[in-house]
Specification:
With 413 residues, the protein is mostly helical. It has 20 helices and 2 strands. The protein has a domain of 286 residues. The chain has a two-stranded antiparallel ribbon with strand order 1-2. The protein is globular, with a radius of gyration of 21 Å.
Length: 413
């Protein structure tokens, strides 16, 4: 099972579209989907046998609400394909946490090797994309299409490359930034806290972390910048204690060097000084404000899954193209109840960690610290980005971190 989980995490990072189109199915079934289904079938008997639905009840309550939201969308005239698409991403992938919990055998598992390799490859691709620009991108696109990426995924890619913003193999600067920001905390935790690895391995992990940090800055994604700097402060205070300044100082140094080497990075930094006059930022604030008006009209249940996707919520066109706040978007489709249940699952996990912290010093547990601060980074970034509702690989990685946290807690106990 751990082999399949390793392959799933690795392939999920690179969005493979190689698979099968079956006439009776209204969607494309790719390799990652098939592996996930196999893993899901494998763990269901274990969930029942070990009564994990009681032990991890917040996840199952959240999943049950997803079924209600799907039915709400169906009776509100959303298309079945749209409902299935949103239900799969927002709710079915919750089981990634349980697959990780049951499929991970130890902290030296091959799953970490596959995951760190994926992080390393994405980071190297991003740095090459930044240094070599159009020539590298044109060449790499041919390879990615050969590997199974859809041709239409690159329709407007070259325009963004000419802007100097990297998108990596994840095809989006925000998604790349959020993914690498969270992953960098996972890797740096092992480098700084795992006493069972050699100094050579430690150095490799530090280099990978630095490359990931660099790519986050080169995406010029402000949401990712806020997430990585805010989380670095929390991480440093909680884990490094007297050396709390180390990670934030390293980030500032990397940012300073890149802003000198790349004037567009410096201009992006300057944009923070005058966000009111920044078109995209001001537009997003207005869209979030508009979403609150619609949430008030259906506060408990929301409009249902598929309704936003099908543009059937009576709203302005701007709300459909500028909704970059996960929490507002989630409440719009799933209601305040759905959002509350999602947040409850997070609070429940954090409560367990804090309770464990009071009993013993868990800050030396690299897997727990790495996964919990990776989750924190994604939650902070989600204030300014909606990736946890629309980006499959980001949602899967989020619940993967969640599962790692659970595994680490129960393994220590």
């Amino acid at each position: 099972m751990s082999y399949l989980l390793s392959i799933f995490i690795f392939l999920n990072t690179f969005l493979p579209k190689v698979g099968f189109r079956i006439e009776k199915l209204p969607f494309h079934l790719n390799i990652t989907d098939i592996i996930f289904i196999v893993l899901l079938v494998y763990i269901i008997p274990k969930i029942i046998k070990e009564k994990l639905y009681i032990k991890f009840y917040p996840l199952f309550i959240l999943f049950a609400w997803g079924i209600i939201s799907a039915l709400n969308g169906y009776f509100s005239s959303a298309l079945p394909v749209s409902i299935f698409d949103e239900f799969t991403r927002q709710y079915l992938l919750i089981f990634t946490a349980l697959i990780t919990f049951l499929g991970l055998r130890s902290k030296n598992n091959k799953v970490f090797l596959f995951f760190v390799t994926a992080i390393c490859l994405v980071s190297i691709y991003g740095i090459c994309e930044s240094i070599l620009g159009v020539k590298f991108t044109a060449l790499s696109h041919k390879l990615l299409i050969y590997l199974g990426y859809p041709v239409n995924a690159f329709d407007h890619y070259m325009d963004f490359v000419n802007e100097g913003r990297i998108r990596t193999t994840l095809l989006s600067w925000n998604a790349s930034g959020q993914y690498l920001a969270s992953a960098s905390f996972f890797v740096i935790s092992r480098a700084l806290l795992d006493k069972n690895i050699s100094s050579k391995t430690k150095t490799i992990y530090i280099i990978i972390s630095i490359m990931a940090f660099m790519c986050v800055i080169l995406t010029r994604s402000r949401s990712s910048w806020i997430a990585i700097f805010a989380t670095s402060i929390l991480f440093s205070v909680a884990v490094l204690k007297k050396r709390f300044w180390v990670v934030p100082a390293a980030l500032v140094m990397i940012l300073a060097v890149l802003s000198i080497c790349n004037p567009k990075v410096f201009l992006r930094i300057k944009s923070f000084h005058n966000l009111k006059d920044d078109g995209p930022a001001a537009g997003r604030v207005l869209v979030v404000k508009e979403s609150f008006q619609h949430i008030k009209k259906a506060p408990f249940m929301g409009y249902g899954l598929g309704m936003y996707y099908d543009k059937k919520i009576p709203a302005t066109v701007f709300m459909y193209f500028g909704m970059d706040c996960f929490y507002a978007k989630y409440a719009l489709s799933n209601g305040i109840t759905g959002l509350a249940l999602f947040l409850f699952s997070i609070i429940w996990l954090f409560h367990k960690i804090i309770r464990e912290y009071k009993k013993s010093d868990i800050t030396n547990n690299w897997m727990l610290m790495g996964s919990i601060f990776a989750i924190t980074s994604m939650l902070i970034g989600s204030v300014f980005d909606s990736m946890l509702t629309i980006t499959t690989f980001a949602i899967a990685i989020f619940w993967f971190y969640y599962g790692l946290s659970l595994k680490s807690l129960y393994e220590d106990n």
